[in-house]
Design brief:
single chain; 513 residues; alpha+beta; Protein Transport Mog1p, Chain A; Membrane-bound Lytic Murein Transglycosylase D, Chain A; 3 domains; seven-stranded antiparallel sheet; three-stranded mixed sheet; 40% helix; elongated; protease; metal-binding
């Protein structure tokens, strides 16, 4: 559903498509607005701490240091020179930047991808710093945000698009009365900070023009669906290049432009490899999953278990987690668990071992008996996890009690042996049958890891290439296998939307895995 951002715009959040920390970006700012500046260890501080703790801070320390350096330079030429500011790149593909109380400035990595040089980056940071120095974060801008967040929450709780849209309409009425004035004031003030550092204020208009082009591209895509997609600083009815009020607010600052040399290559070097789109690097993997990218196989052990070792070094062994980490009832003893045939096994009650050896031309069943010399298994049968050939059965101890679930699975040139075993206290029919359910569930998760899956775990990243005489957007898109919409994005991030073509010698951004 569309979700309002700090600037009074909308970005689209797909259900279940954002990590938990990102929800904070929409809920916590309302708390911050209402709390103001007066609380020690304020909501702004807590929000930042939670953002970092939950993985919302983009994991590129060189880029973080670069953004912070530029931000601190802007603060040093502002009326708040000497005060503490915190600048953070957020690991979000959404196109946004925002300022919060207590001098926090956030910029999403998604916005960085659309910038063409350092001056455009500085223009966004200067704009957000200016919102703080002009004390906009707790005024009508904060009121507008509160209205939007209330609309979002009401829409989610009621499931009603009408409720959501009515709330957004109210928020937009606040913005129409006060928002543009604040934005223009922040543009004008930020342009002064830019000029004081030697950055041409015209790059602020260039940056806003890119965002307007993005808005037009998204509107063209959404027209048939009836979806409105304004973006960062999306308050200009006309194009920023032609907006007289914007030009009058920003360009006079150029009269005081400092003569400072800037490294034009630094921005390119700092954003090389920037993640494009969704970030799969920090995708949550269950703790009980073991993956071997060399053998290209994986298996999920029972929930709450941990594993040690590897297929490459020695036998892989999994077991229930320690009592303080176990998700089950911690008050039960081992004998209680055995008597009640509990579905959660406690530490010391069971293990699952996985090992690998070269396969033969024999069937999996023949391999177990002829190569491994096992005694006949009870309830033996063929298995086929992920369509692979395998065989499994139950092993008995010397007293005839069931104590092992054994499975052999063939994949490529290897035979994977799974030996799941229970402790003596569980070697009775009822307790073993209960544990065996977990064993078989785990065995049935064994499967190959495809190259497609490996590639799918890697996010697309931005790279820079230099155009030559034969370079064209169509040719580059064909080489990268881009769709029509991705081709539009390629033009946009290179300042060539909607129909421009690169010039020989021009640095181009491309995105690929």
């Amino acid at each position: 559903m569309p979700v309002p951002d700090w600037e009074g715009n909308c970005v689209t959040i797909l259900p279940n498509s954002r990590p938990r920390w990102l929800v904070l970006l929409w809920v916590v700012p309302l708390w911050i607005v209402l709390a103001g500046h007066s609380v020690a260890d304020s909501p702004s501080d807590k929000f930042y701490q939670q953002l970092v703790a939950n993985g919302g801070r983009y994991q590129d320390e060189k880029l973080q240091a670069y953004i912070n350096e530029l931000g601190q330079q802007l603060v040093a030429v502002s009326p708040m020179a000497g005060e503490k500011f915190t600048f953070t790149v957020v690991d979000s593909a959404d196109i946004n930047a925002y300022a919060m109380a207590d001098n926090y400035v956030y910029i999403n990595r998604g916005l960085l991808a659309f910038m063409r040089n350092e001056a455009q980056l500085v223009s966004v940071l200067a704009h957000e710093v200016a919102h703080i120095t002009l004390d906009h974060v707790a005024g009508s801008r904060g009121l507008m945000l509160g209205a939007q967040l209330a609309a979002m929450i009401a829409g989610v709780l009621t499931g009603s698009g009408d409720v959501y849209q009515a709330g957004i309409a109210y928020a937009e009425s606040i913005r129409s009365g006060h928002g543009r004035e604040n934005e223009l004031d922040a543009d004008s003030e930020g342009a002064k900070y830019m000029a004081a550092l030697g950055y041409p204020p015209s790059e602020m208009i260039a940056m806003l023009s890119i965002m307007k082009d993005y808005e037009q591209m998204m509107k063209a895509r959404a027209r048939d669906r009836g979806v409105s997609r304004p973006v960062y600083h999306g308050i200009f009815a006309s194009h920023p290049r032609n907006d007289a009020r914007l030009r009058n607010a920003v360009l006079p600052a150029a009269d005081n432009l400092a003569l400072t040399a800037r490294d034009s290559a630094r921005f390119r070097l700092m954003t090389e490899g920037l993640i494009w789109g969704d970030n799969f690097v920090d995708k949550v993997v269950p703790a009980e999953r073991y993956s071997d990218l060399n053998a290209r196989v994986r298996i999920d052990f029972p929930p709450g278990w941990h594993h040690r070792g590897s297929l490459q070094s020695d036998d892989l062994l999994a077991m229930p987690a320690a009592a303080e980490d176990n998700a089950g009832d911690r008050s039960r003893t081992e004998s209680d668990a055995a008597d009640s045939a509990a579905t959660v096994l406690l530490p010391g009650q069971a293990t699952i071992a996985l090992s690998v050896q070269p396969r033969t031309l024999q069937s999996p069943e023949e391999f177990l008996y002829n190569q491994l010399k096992l005694s006949p298994l009870q309830q033996g049968s063929a298995i086929s996890p992920a369509g692979l050939a395998g065989y499994s059965g139950i092993g008995l101890d010397d007293s005839g009690a069931p104590y092992q679930r054994i499975a052999l699975i063939y994949y490529r040139y290897s035979a994977y042996l799974v030996v799941a075993e229970v402790a003596p206290a569980l070697r009775n029919s009822a307790a073993f049958a209960n544990a065996d359910k977990l064993f078989m569930q785990s065995i049935n998760t064994f499967r190959p890891i495809s190259q497609r899956e490996i590639d799918g775990q890697k996010p697309a990243r931005l790279n820079y290439v230099k155009a030559n005489e034969r370079s064209s957007i169509a040719a580059i898109s064909a080489e990268l296998g881009l769709s029509d919409s991705e081709q539009d994005q390629l033009r946009l991030i290179n300042g060539l939307y909607p129909r421009g073509e690169p010039e020989p010698g021009q640095w181009l951004k491309i995105f690929r895995q």
